[in-house]
């Protein structure tokens, strides 16, 4: 289980982060000031640090600078400071991401997943089997009942996301963040259009609509 250190002095935000991260399968440890965050970092193993800038005792920039003297652990800054100067200062300390408040929890979780997947290295097995489908990420091939399926690049990535985690529900926001990028400003209904086309090509209802939430691939036992 991945362990995340949350350095955040605002109780409401800290408790929100802890709750959502635990629901997503992460183990969390919290610090309410910069000194406590450094103490935890030096005494416990973590896979990622969520670091508020406006921390008491030592601010987030100071904490990050001290951490970077010893470790390349992924660091994501969370802050209400959205100015260019602050962001450049953060990236100058080799942080991995900079997220301004207020933020979308769904998108934040997706950013965390991406950072952790990068730090963990590439997946060993890129070939997925689902019912009568085989999808190979290395060769970009999809085989349905022994016949190749012609998918666009976006359709392929959507299918791979769903089949990688059968049963998991993905919101439009999560899919946009993962496949279109965090700076996408178009209509989120573009996801619906691609899924409609994908369903038509599959000619099977492998991708289910979870009304009012998003989409998922049903678990194979369902």
What does this structure look like?
This protein is of the alpha/beta class and 222 residues long. The chain has eight helices and eleven strands. Strands 2-1-3-4-5 form a five-stranded parallel sheet, sandwiched between helices. α3 (60-68) links the parallel β3 (48-52) and β4 (75-79). α2 packs parallel to α3 and α5 (105-120) packs across α7. The radius of gyration is 20 Å and the shape is elongated.
**Which residue ranges are poorly predicted, with pLDDT under 50 across at least 5 consecutive positions?**
none
- Give the strand tally: 11
User: Roughly how much helix do the residues carry, as a percent range?
Assistant: 40-55%
Tell me the distance between the termini: 27 Å
- Name the structural class: alpha/beta
Please describe the topology of this protein.
Layout: E1 3-7, H1 11-23, E2 27-31, H2 34-43, E3 48-52, H3 60-68, E4 75-79, H4 84-92, E5 97-100, H5 105-120, E6 127-130, E7 133-136, E8 141-144, E9 147-148, H6 153-164, H7 172-180, H8 190-202, E10 207-210, E11 214-217
Parallel strand pairs: 1-2, 1-3, 3-4, 4-5
Antiparallel strand pairs: 6-7, 7-8, 8-9, 10-11
Helix pairs in contact: 2-3, 5-7, 6-8
Structure summary:
With 222 residues, the protein is an alpha/beta fold. Helices cover 41% and strands 21% of the residues.
């Amino acid at each position: 289980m991945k362990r995340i250190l949350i350095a955040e002095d605002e109780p409401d935000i800290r408790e929100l982060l802890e709750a959502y991260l635990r629901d997503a399968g992460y183990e969390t440890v919290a610090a309410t000031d910069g000194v406590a965050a450094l103490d935890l970092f030096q005494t416990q193993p973590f896979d990622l640090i969520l670091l508020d800038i406006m921390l008491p005792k030592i601010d987030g920039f100071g904490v990050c600078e001290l951490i970077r003297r010893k470790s390349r652990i992924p660091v994501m800054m969370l802050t209400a400071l959205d100015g260019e100067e602050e962001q450049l200062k953060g990236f100058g300390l080799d942080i991995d991401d900079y997220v301004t408040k207020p933020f979308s929890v769904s998108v934040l979780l997706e950013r965390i997943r991406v950072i952790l997947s990068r730090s963990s290295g590439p997946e060993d097995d890129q070939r997925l089997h689902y019912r009568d489908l085989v999808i190979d990420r290395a060769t970009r091939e999809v085989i349905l009942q022994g016949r190749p399926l012609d998918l666009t690049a976006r359709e392929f990535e959507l299918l791979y996301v769903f089949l990688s985690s059968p049963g998991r529900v993905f919101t439009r926001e999560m899919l946009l963040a993962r496949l279109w990028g965090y700076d996408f400003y178009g209509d989120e209904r573009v996801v619906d259009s691609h899924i409609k086309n994908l369903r038509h090509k599959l000619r099977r209802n492998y991708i289910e609509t979870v009304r009012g939430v998003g989409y998922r691939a049903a678990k194979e036992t369902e």
